[in-house]
Design a protein that fits this description.
Helices cover 0% and strands 42% of the residues. By secondary structure, it is mainly β. The radius of gyration is 14 Å and the shape is globular.
């Protein structure tokens, strides 16, 4: 992934094993980049375009139940916030887990 310009952060707590699909096609030449971390100051788990400009394929990454992921959405270079809408959908057939307080929280400094 490239050097970030303006960015926005989201937190996602998986309630079951599977994958999270994020799609964010803008219809113009700006395609938001998504980077997934295992916690604040943690390891980068996945990175890619929210919408491949050629195939229009969404970004997909594996998730584990009861774990919280930090998702960074940004553009390459520049400091503007282009308007875009993205959707997140769970992919899988697992049953919903019962997560305890703080269970599966991401590790890392910060």
């Amino acid at each position: 992934c490239s050097t970030a310009g303006a960015d926005v952060w989201y937190s996602y707590r998986a309630d079951r094993d599977g994958a999270l699909q994020i799609a964010g096609c803008t219809g113009n030449s700006v395609y938001p980049i998504i980077t997934v971390y295992d916690g604040c100051g943690g390891n980068e788990l996945a990175c890619g375009l929210s919408c491949d400009s050629n195939s229009q394929s969404p970004f997909v990454f594996p998730v584990v139940s009861c774990h919280t992921y930090l998702i960074r959405v940004y553009t390459s270079g520049g400091n503007s916030y282009p308007q875009f809408t993205f959707t997140a959908n769970y992919i899988g057939s697992g049953s919903v887990a019962t997560c305890g307080e703080g269970e599966g929280e991401g590790e890392g400094g910060g």
